[in-house]
Amino acid sequence: MPTRGIPGHTPVGGTTLAAFESVIRTNLTAVFFTVQAAVPHLNDGASIILNGSVISVLGNPGYSAYAASKAGVRAMARVMASELSPRGIRVNVVSPGAIRTPIWGAAIATPDAEKAFEKRIGATTPLGHIGEPDHISKTVLFLASDDSAHVQGQELFVDGGSTASPAGAPIYRG
Fold first, then answer.
1. Buried-most residue among 77, 102, 104, 170 (CB within 10 A)?
2. How far apart are CA 173 and CA 168, in angstroms?
3. Known active-site residue 172
4. Position 8 in a domain
5. Cα–Cα distance between 116 and 120 in angstroms, integer?
6. Closest CA to 78 of 143, 153, 161, 21
7. pTM above 0.85, yes or no
8. Are 59 and 12 in contact (CB under 8 A)?
9. Which domain holds residue 97?
10. Which candidate in 66, 81, 117, 140 is catalytic?
11. In a 3-state reduction of DSSP, which class is residue 9?
12. pLDDT tens across 154-168, in order?
């Protein structure tokens, strides 16, 4: 049950109420009501996988609403897991880091820009490179499968170690 959020630049001192609420409505409120609408149609033992983000824990400047919405998804998933456990429905979150997708826009607009962007991401990621869409899809497939039958209420960061071990990034290695 995929959901899709919006980033929204919301710096302190430069954000309207409408802009902030738009991010929360899309990334948190819509997720809740999508799950609520789907639950009556799910089989017992189903798997719900929500989209989180590393931004919920990294403290990136200018992304208060986005970070709050994704942290809210994590908290909401844990409550949903508690509520849906009697039916054997699992609820988990996949939180990507930097993944090679078109979302980067101008940062990858030219081959040279893309190469510079990937070098910068690689330097700040412990595994030394940007993630691939396949890394996310395989994680989602795992959570949707019986291989994760006893995984409940978890958030899996697929970020090359950026949240768990940032000091291991190449930029910090001697």
1. 77
2. 7
3. no
4. no
5. 6
6. 153
7. yes
8. no
9. 17-172
10. 66
11. coil
12. 999 999 999 999 999
